[in-house]
Amino acid sequence: RKPSRGERRTDSRSREGGGIVDHREADGRRVQAMGKSITVVIAAPFAPASLGLALVSALPRWRVDAFGGGRYVSVVPLLLVSYFVSLAALLLLDTGNRKEHKGKDDDAMPPQAKVHPLQAVPDAPTGAAKPRRRDSLAGLGHDELVDCSALAERELDVRRAAELLHLAHNLDPECHSTRLQLCKVRCDLGFLIFDVSNGGPMTRFFECREGETAEAATKLVTSALAGARDLVSGRPDCHQARTLLALCIGRSILVETKNRRKVHLAKEMHDAAMAAVSLNSEDDQAHFMLARWHNDIASLPGVLKTLVRFVYGTGLKGSFERAVECSKTAIALNPGNLVNKVELGRAYTGLGNLESAKRVYEQVLDLEVLDVNSALYKQIALDDIGRMERGEPVGSLARPWWAVG
């Protein structure tokens, strides 16, 4: 939670080790640095002019010495040279001042102020225990590790959740639910890295580390897809495995570079979601995956869908009307899952019913964020509400169709 203005004003001091850091001192240094920068800007026009005038006043003597008084020398080149030399000197001086004060302000900032975006705790349950660090994980059992991973997902710390689930899987390799969740978290991590690497909307919640490139993301998503296929193969009657497979296929479409492969994956995603619904018609996430599929396919331009049908021999018959139906079914089964309602809002925007879309979006603003997927969907609702209020395009007109995986 971000502190209020009053809290920031009251808590002007914070402890760092055994000492106390006064933020007002850092603010004073910033003001001082700003004053020096303004002084440099004001002095900038005068220094080149002074230097140029000095050179011009000495010009007759230079002309006599160099040319014996018989040649004309233009004043303009000397003025230009003097201007650029003095301006370069001023810029170097100003850059040095900025670096000096930046280093001092960074040193003055307490550790708790340097928070990584993933360390924020949006919508975390009050009083919930924090996930333990590696040095205190040795005594945790399988169920405790799984519980800690769920909290890490709420904190949007997907790396930590994957680490905890991996440890839980090592303790009980045959636990089907843990394998499902580990596969899902790995797929989420791959999606995050890929989206942020390409400047997508997840930059609000995630920062890539060294080595976390688009290529690394593709490997993670590909590995997750292989894991989902193995889970379906091992338990073909598990509706959750089929739903997970649909999710991983959707993410694979995102990272896939070949159009023919994208089309076949899209058909396979639809089939996996339909299979999950046939196995358990009360699986709200299976209906959600169908709604998302219809929204994404319906958002494709008509020319592209026609080209797909003629070139690749596959008809992708997605519609916003079917997305509305599937979303409403998912909401009826699980009204507290915000992604179900946002998907309905996306379908309404596709149909041009912005009034209904806004009404649905406003219903999700107070719902709990459980993982990065619901965090993204909540942001979609906020963004679309803002666009509606500003009279800007919304839905598929405002972002690429793959923005939600």
Map the helices and strands.
Elements: H1 5-10, E1 13-16, E2 19-22, H2 23-43, H3 46-67, H4 76-108, H5 142-154, H6 158-171, H7 176-197, H8 214-234, H9 239-255, H10 259-279, H11 284-298, H12 302-312, H13 320-333, H14 338-351, H15 354-363, H16 372-390
Antiparallel strand pairs: 1-2
Helix pairs in contact: 2-4, 3-4, 5-6, 6-7, 7-8, 7-9, 8-9, 9-10, 9-11, 10-11, 11-13, 11-14, 13-14, 14-15, 14-16, 15-16
Walk me through what this model shows.
- This protein is mainly α and 405 residues long.
- The protein contains 16 helices and two strands.
- The radius of gyration is 30 Å and the shape is globular.
Strand order of the largest sheet: 1-2
User: What Rg is obtained from the alpha carbons, in whole angstroms?
Assistant: 30 Å
Overall pLDDT confidence: 75
Helical residues, percent? 55-70%
Identify low-pLDDT runs: 1-43, 61-73, 98-132, 397-405
Reading the helices and strands in chain order gives HEEHHHHHHHHHHHHHHH
Report the end-to-end length measured between terminal Cα atoms.
27 Å
Number of strands: 2
Helix- and strand-based class? mainly alpha
Strand count, sense and barrel status of the largest sheet are: 2 strands, antiparallel
Choose one word for the global shape: globular
Q: What is the beta-strand fraction? A: under 5%
Number of helices: 16
